[in-house]
Amino acid sequence: MKVAKEWRLGSMGDTKILPGSRHRSPLKRPIWIILMVSFVSLFLVCAYIYPPNSNVACYVFSSRGCKVITDWLPPPKRELTDEEIMSRVVVRDILDTPPVESKNPKIAFMFLTPGSLPFEKLWDMFFRGNEGRFSVYIHASKEKPVHVSPYFLNREIHSSPVTWGAFSMVDAERRLLAYALKDPDNQHFVLLSDSCIPLHNFDYVYNYLMHANMSFIDCFVDPGPHGNGRYSTRMLPEVEEKDFRKGAQWFTMRRQHALLVMADSLYYSRFRDYCRPFADGKNCIADEHYLPTFFNLVDPGGIANWSVTRVDWSERKWHPKSYRAQDVTYDLLRNFTSIDMTTHITSNAGGEELLQPCIWNGTRRPCYLFARKFYPETLDKLVTLLNF
C-alpha cells in the first residue's frame, strides 16, 4: 500500500515544480524596431542633406523622383541677407543698452495735424501744473497753426506735405520722433492727431506710460483684403507674409523703441517701395502696416499689441466713427475709460472681431488714455465734462 506523501509548506524537496510559461525577452522586439526606425531616419536625413543625383538612386525613395523627400522633411532655414544681419546687430545692441537715466523724465506729446489744433484749450487744461514733465511737438503739414495755449507756442517742427494713405504719413511720424529724441529727458513718445482728446488727468497718463514695461503699438493679424491682402511678395525675403501685421498708427513707445525706428533702414525701405496706394494692384496703407510688422519682427514681446488711443471702427467704414456735440455725454466718456478689452475687426467677409484683454505689467487694466475722432464743435462740452 502506497503512503501518500505529506505536503509541507516550504519543503522544496517535496514540492512539485510546475512547468512555467515560456518567457521571451521583452526587449528583443522593441530594440529591433528602434534600431530599424533609427537606421531609416538616419538614411532619410543623409539623403536630404546629400541628395542623390542619379535617377536610380532617386527611385529608391519614389518613382516620382527625389523631390518627394523634400516634401516629407521641413524646409531648410533660409540664410539671412547681409542687410538683415546688420539690422539685427543694431536691434540687439539698442535693446541690450540700458535706458538713459534721466533726473527729469518726460513724455513727448507729438501732434500730427494739417494745421491748427481745435482742442488746444482742452490740452492746455491737461498740461497745466505739470511743467517739466512733458514736451510738445507739432507737425503741421498744410498751414502754420494759430495757438491759444502757451504750451504750443513755437513748438512746430520742420514738416513736409502729408497725404492720407501715402508713405509720407510714415515719414511724418519718423520726423516727429527724430525731433523729440533730441531731448534726452524724453522717455516716452505719444503720437496724436488733431482730433484726439485726453480721457484722464495728466498724473494718471504719466504714471500709466512711464511705469509700463512695454510700448503700446497696435498689432494683429488681418487675413482679409485690407490686411494680408495688401502684402506684396516683392518684400521678400526680409518680410514674409506670415509676419505681415496691421494696426492703428496712433502709438506710444518707449525711448529704446523710438531709437529702433530711427535706426531702421531695411524694413523702412521695403515698405517705402512696396507698400503704397495702388502699388502692384494693391492699396497698401503704410502707416497701418509698417510699425506693426517691424516690431512683430524685431521685438514682438516688447509691445502690447493694442493702442491706448480709443478708435471706434464698429461702423466698418473707411474712416472710424466721428463724434458730434450731441454725442458727447458723461456716459460716453465713462464708457471709454472703463473698457478693459480691445477689439480688432478683420476685413475678411463678415468682419471677425478679435478680442484681447488689456494687460498692463501683468495686470488687467483699462485700455485707453486718449480717444478720437471728435469734431471741433465738441470742445465746450468736453471742457465741461472732463474738467481736469
From TrEMBL:
Could you tell me where this protein is found in the cell? Membrane
Q: Name one GO cellular component term.
A: membrane
Q: How does it sit in the membrane?
A: Single-pass type II membrane protein
Q: Name one GO molecular function term.
A: glycosyltransferase activity
* One Pfam family from the record: Branch
Give the matching PANTHER family: CORE-2/I-BRANCHING BETA-1,6-N-ACETYLGLUCOSAMINYLTRANSFERASE FAMILY PROTEIN-RELATED, OS06G0661900 PROTEIN
Kindly provide the name given to this protein in its UniProt entry. Answer: Glycosyltransferase
